[in-house]
C-alpha cells in the first residue's frame, strides 16, 4: 500500500457504515438542515436534487472529460501523469479538495484503487461528492486488508497476475485513476469516450464500460 505523504486530515469525518452511530459532524449537519427546512429557508426536495446532480453528474463528468482527453491526446496524457494538478486545471477543473492531484494509470498488468483510510479525502472538483460507501468504515479497512475481495464485491475480478496497488488519499494529495481504454473505441470522439468513464472506474473499484454498455455512464 502506498503511503507517500503524511495522512493529515483537517476536514469532515466520514459516515460509518449503515446502522452505525453518526459522528458528531453529521449530526450537526442534519440538525442544521432540519432547522433550515423548518424555517422555510430551503426546500428539501430541491436540496436533494442539487446533491444528486453534483454527486452523479457535475463532478464525475469532469473526471470523465479528463480521462477521455488522456485517451485521445498523447501529449495531454503524458502531462497528466507528469503533473496531474496542472493538466486537470487546464481544463478548468479546480477547487476544494482538488488542489494537489496525482493520476494513476491502470494497465493490463497494474490495477490501482484509491481509499482514504482515516476519513474521506476525495477530489470533489473532479469526481463530485464522495459516495457513501467510500466513506464507510468497512470499505476503508477492507480496501487495505482484502482489496481483491472488495473489487469482487463491485463485480471486478482481476487475474492473480495483475499487480493490485492501493493508494491512500490524504489532505495533501488526492488521486485520479485513469482506467484502461475499452477495446473497439478507436473511432470515438472525446464526448463518446467520456460516456464510457464511470465514477467507480476513476476510483479503481470499477472498469470503463464497453461502447455497448454506455447509457450516460459517467452520471
From TrEMBL:
Residues 24-205 form the Nitrile hydratase alpha/Thiocyanate hydrolase gamma domain. It comes from the Bacteria. InterPro entries: CN_Hdrase_a/SCN_Hdrase_g_sf, CN_Hdrtase_a/SCN_Hdrlase_g, CN_Hdrtase_asu/SCN_Hdrlase_gsu, Nitrile_hydratase_asu. GO terms for molecular function: nitrile hydratase activity; transition metal ion binding. It holds the Pfam family NHase_alpha. The keyword GTP-binding does not apply. Keywords: Iron, Lyase, Metal-binding. Its EC number is 4.2.1.84. It catalyses: an aliphatic primary amide = an aliphatic nitrile + H2O. Fe(3+) binds at residues 116, 119-121. Belongs to the nitrile hydratase subunit alpha family. NCBIfam families: nitrile_alph. This is nitrile hydratase. It comes from Caballeronia temeraria.
